[in-house]
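A further point concerns the way the authors explain their paired sequence and structure data. Since the whole study asks how a given chain folds, the encoding of that fold should be made plain. A single example would do more here than another paragraph of explanation. An entry of this sort, consisting of the sequence and the corresponding backbone structure tokens, reads as follows:

_____
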Amino acid sequence: MKQYTVDVIGKSFCKKGEDTCGDSFKVFHAPDSTVIVLSDGLGSGVKANVLSTLTVEIVGGLATGNLSTHEMVETLIATLPVCKWRGIAYSTFSILRIYATGQATLVEYDSPVSLRLRGGVRVSPAIGSEVQILDKTIRETHFKLRPGDVFLQMSDGIIHAGVGTTMRMGWQEEGVQSYLSHVAHLAEGDPERLVDIVLKQANELWEGAPGDDGTVVATRYRKARNAVVITGPAGDRRDMPRMLNDFIGAQGMKVIAGGTTSHLVAEKLDKDVEIDLAYIDSGLPPTAKIEGIDLVTEGMLTLNKVVDYMKHSIPEDEENAATKLYDLLVSCDGITFMVGTARNAAHQNANFPPEMLLRRSVIETLAALLRDQGKTVEVSYY
């Protein structure tokens, strides 16, 4: 089960007169870490965007392999083109790599110093050491994040905000840090609100006419939200006690999807099953309540409806057992499905849609859709 995770929010504004931002950022999920990349392309507009996008995608390709951060940077520097007139790289970059343990590595090439917020209010710069990689000076920082820490990466358009207009030398790194120290509490640790606060101030310093592209990326490290979903009785009744014990002993929110399963769990817990009348006329079987369980729904009809919602979205104002299950699943970072393989006699009805006959197929489809959203999903069969 996933213990920790990261939330990443990034937003940009374009240089005045441009429709395309020359900065790019992206999040990549490596086997052992999450990699957040911000790149600032030389110049502005489409050409700068192509260069920054190239940088980000190269890092993404390297992140999926078993390369160290140092090897990734070395390969990137060797690959990136250099302006033959100015002798500088066509793009700069900031790469933040966070492992599940909270250990993190930041490597920056010609980028503004990144900031870390601890406790939502204590702001400090990520001051690392300079290393030479292929004749380029790289700033490298190693540190340990705590749950709740937020990390801010920025492009030049933020620290240069107001240069030549409202501020002779621009906002500068120290100015951004000082400003955040005074207003960070307003965001209450929310990375999106932090991004909005910084972007709004930078735009105001530019007087609404930015002289450069600006981007802020905020990454929050936090404890993961997990859920375990049990659906269907075990194929062999002798495995049912083990299945129930695994479910009850699991960490995270607990969900039951199945009428028979709900009664088996209730019996194990020595609790009652109470029908919830809130969704009695919703077109799906209603939810139920069992003390100690976060959500109880019917099985196949509800699970198939969740799959439909994930593929096509939820119609406006629709609310039922499946929307409740959908909301719970998408709010989680890690989900474990415990799937019983017993055949349900009710599903042998000739009028029952054939696509709903196999619980295994429905769960595998749902698991794949959740993984596409970046969730960590495990499926166990009993």
About this structure: The longest strand covers residues 4-13.
